[in-house]
Amino acid sequence: MNPSRVDCRRLIAAVICFILACQNSPTDSGGPPDGTEADSLRITVPSTLLVNDVALLTAKLWKDGQHTFESPVNWSSSDPSIASLTPSGTSSAVVTGGRRGTVTISASSGGIVTEATLRITAELSIQPDYVLATPEGWPMAVGDQLQLEAVYVDVDGEPIAEIPSLTWSSTPAA
Fold it and tell me: What share of the chain is helix, strand, coil (3-state, %, to 5)?
């Protein structure tokens, strides 16, 4: 084989390797190309979420009232047992409600920190639930008894371990 062809192929292979290696290497601090820094970080967080439900959280950096650029955002929860976070891309995360309670969700980027409050809730359900499915009420004769239980349920309607504190009452028959 011609030695100049071998050298040319090696040079082309070296250039391709160099280009491929540089594609994944950061060349700056993640800031905008013009060197300006963001002055605020705005996050989108729902105010409430049901136990075992999920939501997408997003963050945007702003400079002088305008959305500027995408930059890596670090997310955290003040109590991961109530609401856990999983990064999803550069500036978003998925939050999952773990148990009832209130947490502070924090997002930070480039030295800017923003916080929002998230309340994890559960729906209250009467068990057995077939009692509520009867439009005229559950037929009962005088002296009959029916054991009812109030439970918290998650987003899928499944009971959760927490026991609700409540007061029972009834109205007189019509």
Answer: 15, 35, 50
Are 47 and 103 spatial neighbours (Cβ–Cβ below 8 Å)?
Answer: no
pLDDT tens digits, residue range 115-165?
A: 999 999 999 888 777 666 676 767 778 888 878 888 999 999 898 888 888
CA atoms within 13 A on the CB side of 88: 14
Flag whether pLDDT at 99 surpasses 70.
yes
- Biggest CA pair distance of the chain: 106
Which residues lie below 8 Å from residue 163, measured CB to CB, with a gap of 6+?
151
Rounded alpha-carbon distances, angstroms, from residue 87 to 8, 57, 59: 45, 9, 12
Closest CA to 59 of 48, 67, 47: 67
Q: How far, in Å, CA of 92 to CA of 86, rounded?
A: 9
* Mean predicted confidence (pLDDT) in 65-78: 83
Please name the amino acid found at residue 145: Q
